[in-house]
Request: fold
Amino acid sequence: VRPKAVAGDAGSVGAPMPGVVHETKVKPGEHVAAGEPMVILSAMKMETVVAAPIAGKVDSLAVAAGDDVQAGDLLVNIV
Reply:
């Protein structure tokens, strides 16, 4: 069971839909700008880019390439 993103916390970034993590583009400790791609999800032969909703530092990355995720599962935490 994966941790869920915290509703109301802009830095707690969850999966927008069920799928498989195709690629991660950030690492813990990196600084990200708002709108910067962080995770690529693949579902039904379609790729979705999950971008940073806010600027900040990546505190943790909860997924790796190949992981199955459900909607709302925590992907990245930004502080």
